[in-house]
Amino acid sequence: MRSVASIMHLDLDAFFASVEQRDKPSLRGKPVIVGGVGGRGVVATASYEARKFGVRSAMSTREARARCPHAAFLTGRFHAYRATSEAVMELLRSVSPLVEPLSLDEAFVDLEASSLTSFDVPTLRGWAETLRSRVCEVTGGITASVGVGSSKFIAKVASELDKPDGLTVVAPGSERDLLRPMHVTTIPGVGPATAERLRRAGISTIADLEAISLPEIVRLLGKAHGHGLFRLARAEDSRTIEPERETKSISVEGTYDSDLTDRSLMAGLLTRQAYSVAERLRRSGLSGRTVTIKVRLHDFTTNSRSTTLAAPTDHAQTIAGVARGLLDDLDTSDGVRLLGVGVSGLADWIQEDLFGDIDPESDPEPTPLAEPPAGLVVRYPPGADVVHREWGPGWVWGSGRGVVTVRFETAETGSGPVRSFAIDDPDLRAQQFGTSS
Ligand SMILES: [Mg+2]
Questions:
Q1: Exposed / middle / buried, residue 404 (Cβ in 10 Å: 0-12, 13-18, 19+)
Q2: pLDDT score at 77
């Protein structure tokens, strides 16, 4: 814990849903639920309008549909979330070099490394309000809730207090009074199991926890956990801001003594590499959107080709299919010395979990091998960006029975018209994002 409130926690409000409402004017002010739309899908983010009906993150989509049947249910558009997140993180890094992103929509910032010279509460409030309005500007209208305090724990607690679109600065010295009435689950690391064990011992608030001795907490929860909780109950937290330690990509490559010329052998090697990349992704709890192959030719020139998928994957067959498709783009007739496969644009496992569950019957997997990489996005999931030759850009309102219904509007247009097309209408196509070569 510091003697001044110099740690900030910023959390974008209902982030995925807010981005959807920004880009889909007809959904502004309406319940929007982003997540897995399949039979076992889970809600990733619900807009505040949907939360009024009791819809929450991590709830099954089935339950969300029962509670709020009139909501728009959308699958994620990671290109839009990522671009918006990057704009915010870039803004944060312009105010302090010490930024620790926790996810796409959350970060800690160390204000001691900023240009601030005074950390009294009114100065911090004015400064943070300016920052919040700049977040709104750089994101095209997404709001952020901000907490400022003397530690990571207090800053994070503070950002929750006035959500959405709020600001709380916790004055140094007032931390313990703030925490006392709060439930023990406010403390990071206190999940349902720990909370239940504490409840059975008669402990529900942080004040209750503060009142019991260290040996008693240790007896209840074990040494490591007990010591940690004893300190956090007293607002003692000396964790520092860890600027991004990025695992940017996971890749596997092989070099060969003699030039490879057999295409089916190369495809086989790429497939094997894709499987080991997928295994390493899963072991690290990561998934990625961009699949890259690296090919060194007989003359030692090195080429790479990549494709960005609509959603992150750690699926071996998908990675292998894309990698083989990318190889088809390259002239390897004179022989190859090195082959490699990598996945980048990594996201936390949880996102794959939330979005990966697409009902296989209503929404079949794309078949990477049958299509060139640019044709990978062959389906029309609800909410996805599309473009029509005549009508221009829009988004998938719904699809089924060979028909796709599109609403033609963008962040700039205001609410737009709805039209239906045959699913194989050559004038309609899925928008491609981030594909490079
Ligand atoms: Mg958030």
A1: buried
A2: 87
Report pLDDT for 349: 41
Determine the distance separating the centroid of ligand 1 and the alpha carbon of 351, expressed in angstroms.
14
> Which pTM was predicted?
0.71
- Ligand 1 mean position to 6 CA, how many Å? 21
Which residue stretches of the chain have pLDDT < 50?
349-378, 434-437
CA dihedral 112, 118, 124, 127 (to 10 degrees): -90
Which residues are known catalytic residues?
106
Q: What's residue 374's pLDDT?
A: 36
Place of tokens 């240009």: 115
pLDDT value of residue 417: 96
Taking the centre of ligand 1 as the mean of its atom positions, its distance from the CA of residue 141, in whole angstroms, is 15
Kindly report, residue by residue over 341-387, the tens digit of the pLDDT: 999 877 654 343 344 333 333 333 333 322 333 333 346 889 999 99
Please tell me the predicted confidence (pLDDT) of residue 347: 65
What is the SS3 string spanning the chain? CCCCCCEEEEEECCHHHHHHHHHCHHHCCCCEEEECCCCCCEEEEECHHHHCCCCCCCCEHHHHHHHCCCCEEECCCHHHHHHHHHHHHHHHHHHCCCEEEEECCEEEEEHHHCCCCCCCHHHHHHHHHHHHHHHHHHHCCCCEEEEEECCHHHHHHHHHHCCCCCEEECCCCCHHHHHCCCEHHHCCCCCHHHHHHHHHCCCCEHHHHHCCCHHHHHHHHCHHHHHHHHHHCCCCCCCCCCCCCCCCEEEEEEEEEEEECCHHHHHHHHHHHHHHHHHHHHHCCEEEEEEEEEEEECCCCEEEEEEEEEEEECCHHHHHHHHHHHHCCCCCCCCEEEEEEEEEEEEEHHHHHHHCCCCCCCCCCCCHHHCCHHHCCCCCCCCCEEEECCCEEEEEEEEECCEEEEECCCCCCCCCCEEEEECCCCCEEECCCCCEC
* Residue 260 CA to ligand 1 centre (angstroms): 49
